[in-house]
Design brief:
This protein has 226 residues and is an alpha+beta fold. It has a single domain, classed as Regulatory factor, effector binding domain (Multidrug-efflux Transporter 1 Regulator Bmrr, Chain A, Alpha-Beta Barrel), CATH 3.20.80. It is 27% helix and 29% strand. It is globular. The N and C termini lie far apart (48 Å). InterPro entries: GyrI-like (IPR029442), Reg_factor_effector_dom_sf (IPR011256). Pfam families: GyrI-like (PF06445).
């Protein structure tokens, strides 16, 4: 049976609609980065989707080529993921204005090395007459995070993030969003086939323990009970 990264790393993909805290280790990704709207209405974002799928398929089918990956086992292409942050500081939700910097990503199996990835980019470019030079091999370690399954349209993500916010407040944590530690979404449903109200998206955000002063201020101001 092909390796399914979602099942092999169940704790990071099989979340429920109740917020939970996880510590995410270093993970290898194929990524394309961009600025501006991150939807298929943006031609470059659409191109990024095509590049990641094409390079991913090349790696998946590499056993049929002269390039043999050490430790290779057949695997299922994982769902697309997206990291992003806005230039406007202090945002902890999925709404608002500000320049959007996004990273579209596809998780790679641990046996895929940078050299294997570079081969796949070159091979895909040559075989499919597609410029894949925007694709990069990166390693990201998210660390301490809160995650929750959002069921519904992308436009309604804020209500799930608000629930995550209340969960953190009640447990002594706070969001820790920066340019390096970004909002993260994993698209578990195919939006081309699933109605908006049934879409399943895993939302993940970096967090930190609250300082004693922050907890004290919330109690004084009539905030959460601790």
């Amino acid at each position: 049976m092909p390796l399914d990264l979602k099942k092999a790393h169940r704790e990071f993909y099989m979340a429920t609609n109740q917020p939970m805290i996880v510590t995410v280790p270093a993970v290898h990704y194929a990524v394309v980065r961009g600025v501006g709207e991150s939807s298929l209405k943006n031609s470059f974002f659409k191109q990024a989707v095509m590049i990641l799928y094409a390079v991913g398929r090349t790696l998946k089918m590499s056993y049929r080529t002269a390039h043999q990956i050490d430790g290779f086992v057949p695997y299922v292409l994982p769902p697309l993921e997206r990291f992003w942050y806005k230039s406007q500081e202090g945002r902890s939700d999925a709404a608002g204005t500000g320049m959007l910097y996004w990273t579209l990503a596809s998780r790679l199996p641990d046996f895929v090395t940078r050299a294997d990835f570079d081969w796949a980019v070159q091979h895909t470019t040559e075989q499919r007459d597609m410029d894949c030079a925007y694709a990069r091999f990166v390693t990201m370690e998210e660390g301490l995070c809160v995650q929750c399954l959002h069921i519904g349209s992308y436009a309604e993500r804020a209500r799930t993030i608000e629930r995550m916010h209340h969960f953190l407040g009640a447990n002594g944590y706070a969001f820790d969003l920066t340019e390096q530690r970004q909002h993260h979404e994993i698209y578990l449903s195919d939006a081309r086939k699933i109605p908006p109200d049934r879409l399943r998206t895993l939302l993940r955000q970096p967090i930190r323990m609250r300082q004693k002063e922050e907890l004290y201020e919330e109690v004084v101001c009539g905030g959460i009970r601790i």
